[in-house]
Amino acid sequence: MLNKFTRASFSARNLRRKPLRTIILIIAIASLVSALVFSLSFVARVALGIKIASERLGADILVVPAGSRGAAEDVLLENKAKSFYMDRGMMERVRAVKGIDKMTFQTYLTTMQGKCCDVPETVVVAFDQDTDFLIKPWLTEKFNRRLDKGEALVGNESAFNIRVGLVEVDSVLFGNVFKMVGVLDKTGTGLDNALFIDSSNLDDIIRKGSADLRPNQISIIFLKVKQGLDPYKVAGEIEDAIVEVDTMARKDIGKSIITVLRDIGSIFIFTMALISLLSAFLTWAIFSAIANERAREVGIMRAIGAREKHIVAVFLFEVLIVGTIGSIIGILVGTASSILLAKSFSIMKNLPMHMGIMQRIIIASAGFVAGNAVCIAGALAPIQKIKKMEPLMAIKKE
Amino acid sequence: MPQIEIKELTKIYSIGDQEIKAVNNISLNIDKGEFISIVGHSGSGKTSLVSIIGGIMRPSSGHVFFNGQDICALDDDRLSEYRNEKIGFIFQFASLLPMLTSRENVMLPGLFRTTPQPGDDARALQYLDLVGLGDKAEAYPSQLSGGQQRRVAIARALMYEPQMVLADEPTGDLDEETEAEIMGLFSKLNREHEITFILITHNLELAGMAGRRLRMTRGELVTV
């Protein structure tokens, strides 16, 4: 049985002649692509997580104590334990501003294992069931009643954190025993890691003295504006009227993280540009060496009828084989790293996993294109040089 | 009309400030089916002349007409096609590609043809048989002796039955017996298929087998 002899097999055999050199080139491209896929996944995941979290929050405007925007974002997006309070009377002042349709409040408490509570550190959200329009949509069909005093709901992810796994478990929170009676649906926000109680429990908690909270204190007021009104305008009017508060429109939630992310993105872009340059340089150096070594062979091929485009095709196919193998390895390594190492980054620790298959495909495609493009860019000059040589000159080149 | 018509052909190499005329104003006609030998000292311009005729080097001035067409005026694609379809090259050095087997080396010109021909495998084996290497079809050049490599190169040059074979010291590494066989093959192809042969050699005995003998001295051509 004779082996099939084609231009593709010809290129593949050329690469096999110097396996170590080929492997080095593949590793370089794989490193570039894996770094690219990892960083794109990182940035896309955080950005998307923030976008979805803010969209799912269900409120148009958040009103927080002045100077607490960052702390509010930390709680809502990442479930970071933060305390910030304002007087509940602030609600009446906000209500006086025109254009508000719905309004509710939440008060955030931070648990400390062994000190006040028997659950690991997390945020406890006290909400007002009469006015709430944020938590209700995430209550499962199984739990379609009001929460009683001494009862708590657990966030979708929190069920794992406090190791109850199932409901109907008693836990001590701020010196009071709470029965975990239900689990919220996944919200895709930092609240997935929180515990939820009715605000009527706050008096008992304050009485026990194990929480840093005074009577009638709340953390955030959530607002829905009347249809057709611009949330930014209403938010501006609230800030003008009440100097003790800051406001955040829904689209601004996560702005501080996005600003940091933009900086991280710039560092990634710079690093990627540097790695791409190095990979292209390595490809150029290796293909220059290959072109020099094979000058006589190219001359012979030209003498027996190879056109310039045939020479380009032979070398380009070699480049594409290296680029494709390197890119595929890079995509696999980069994707695996982005999944395995995600929880090593505090910014991603509490952000929900929102990378869909489509996003992964887009990032993988970008990595594939970049890997091959860098390879081609690096090899182009040596290929151009060798194809332009007069056959006899190429044959005589030592 | 002659198959090859060379008119006032000159090739000048520039080495630093110095200019060397490798081919000096040569004019020559070669008819289809001729068997020409060219002898001359090293550096006399034999290889340069044959390289220009074969289209692997462009002249400094002058023209080479092949069947009336000026090959010096062809663009790269057409010139490559000319080399691929009309010319068979046999170089004076090892010219096989190391990662290809003997069979694949013989088939190599077919890889660059605009219209691939069916049955290339069988033809390659047939030509390898012709040069006595039928049993070495799947051997790589590193597994062949210098003489065997030369014979594979000859099979490659003849594989697509070119109209003209340009052979630069084709039997240099071969023993007398193989040399005679190869020369016999050349004569047969020349006679039966009217393939034109231009043979560069130092061997006056081989040169004597050609129908027309030429000598090159300092870029100029004289009939012996």
Architecture overview:
- The complex is a heterodimer of chains A (398) and B (224).
- By secondary structure, chain A is an alpha+beta fold.
- Chain A has helices at residues 7-17, 19-56, 69-78, 90-95, 158-161, 202-208, 231-241, 255-293, 295-303, 308-340, 346-349, 357-387, 391-396; strands at 61-65, 86-87, 100-110, 123-127, 151-154, 169-173, 176-183, 195-198, 217-218, 220-225, 245-249.
- Helix content of chain A is 53%, strand content 14%.
- In chain A, the strands form 2 sheets. Chain A has a 9-stranded mixed β-sheet with strand order 6-7-5-8-4-3-10-1-11, with helices on both faces. A two-stranded antiparallel ribbon of chain A has the order 2-9.
- Chain A is elongated, with a radius of gyration of 30 Å.
- The two termini of chain A are 37 Å apart.
What would the keywords be for this entry?
heterodimer, A: 398 residues, alpha+beta, 9-stranded mixed sheet, two-stranded antiparallel sheet, 13 helices, 11 strands, 53% helix, 14% strand, B: 224 residues, alpha/beta, 6-stranded mixed sheet, 4-stranded antiparallel sheet, 7 helices
